Amino acid sequence: MASSEPKLVCRGVWKIFGAGGRSLAGPSAARLTSADLRAAGAVGAVRDVNIEVREGEIFVIMGLSGSGKSTLVRCLSRLIEPTSGDILFNGENLLAASEARMIEIRRHQMGMVFQHFALLPHLTVLANVAFPLEIQGIERAAREERARRMIDLVGLSGRENAFPRELSGGQQQRVGIARSLAAEPELWFLDEPFSALDPLIRREMQDEFLRLQSVLKKTIVFITHDFDEAIRLADRIAIMKDGEIVQAGTPEDLVLNPATPYVAEFTRSVARAKVVKVAALMRPLNGTLPPASIRANAPVAEAAPLFSRGAETLAAVDGAGTPVGLIDRAAVVDVMMRG
């Protein structure tokens, strides 16, 4: 469960490309229009973005190609320099940090995974995963011991001495994930990490990602253009269009209460059963617990197959497996019938 405390705060962040961009940024930047930007020969790739990412949550930023989502995540880590605004990480304004300080933060407190695996082809799996620790100056035995733990965590034990060319695409991405986790980051950025994978492998990697998060409880900013992926993984979602956040909220908020016609169109084909959580349909515990159970934060769609085995009621459990309520077949059928 995510904490209510923000780990990362983004206030009034702009990224304007073009010769006249910086002159437009400032206190009045929030009132800039597309016409203002065009007149200055500039492009607003990120426009007055305000978000808070809570400790321990998966915060998904999504939008179509060109919406600004990847530019935003690079601004958050200062891989791209924002034009203006404030980015607070653990209360520290990253835009006031020196380059040396940013290198230290990226090495020790941030992890990053991108769509392209970027593994070093001449290094083994073990050496690839240990590489960030080598850069930190950690001695060999310690870094290899930690790397082996990360390799085991992502399910690649036994492949430590393989080279990237000997691995499948899904295995290569697991190596990339293990490498980013080796430094034990507090904040984890993932920019479309599964987009290059085949659909079945992508689903497996999403399952693996959720398993890892249940163990590690990282603060995660996840970029995707796939709404099905977003609603499956996210605690909250921010939808971007033309560099702006047009709505942010839980998957249920976006599907059931779209703020704009754009969001409504974006979510139009999503079945309610995929976004309504079991917790929303729970009733209090009463009497003997049923033998079958489901996570309270699981979507209703995952509960439906359990009723096909003859159960009339399921126990809803929290992350520790403790029963917190009951969910009935009739309540699930009602949601499923409403599409």
Description of the structure:
There is one protein chain. The strands form three sheets. The chain has a six-stranded mixed β-sheet with strand order 6-7-8-3-9-10, sandwiched between helices. The chain has a four-stranded antiparallel β-sheet with strand order 2-1-4-5. It has a three-stranded mixed β-sheet with strand order 11-12-13. It has helices spanning 21-24, 34-39, 69-76, 99-108, 125-135, 140-153, 169-182, 199-216, 227-233, 251-256, 261-267, 272-275, 278-281, 300-307, 329-337; strands spanning 6-17, 43-54, 58-62, 84-89, 92-93, 110-114, 187-191, 219-224, 236-241, 244-249, 293-295, 313-317, 323-328. Helix 6 (140-153) crosses helix 7 (169-182). By secondary structure, the chain is an alpha/beta fold. It folds into two domains: 6-109 and 185-270, P-loop containing nucleotide triphosphate hydrolases (Rossmann fold, 3-Layer(aba) Sandwich); 274-337, CBS domain Like, CATH 3.90.1280.20.
Catalogue the unreliable spans: none
Give the distance, in angstroms, between the N- and C-terminal Cα atoms: 28 Å
Helix content: 25-40%
What is the string of SSEs from the N terminus onward? EHHEEHEEHEHHHEHEHEEHHHHEHEEH
The major β-sheet equals: 6 strands, mixed
The mean pLDDT is: 88
| E-strand count | 13
Number of helices: 15
* Class per helix and strand makeup: alpha/beta
Count of the separate structural domains: 2
CATH superfamily of the largest domain: P-loop containing nucleotide triphosphate hydrolases
- Backbone CA Rg: 22 Å
CATH architecture of the largest domain: 3-Layer(aba) Sandwich
Proportion of beta-strand residues: 15-25%
CATH topology description of the largest domain? Rossmann fold
- Overall shape: it is globular
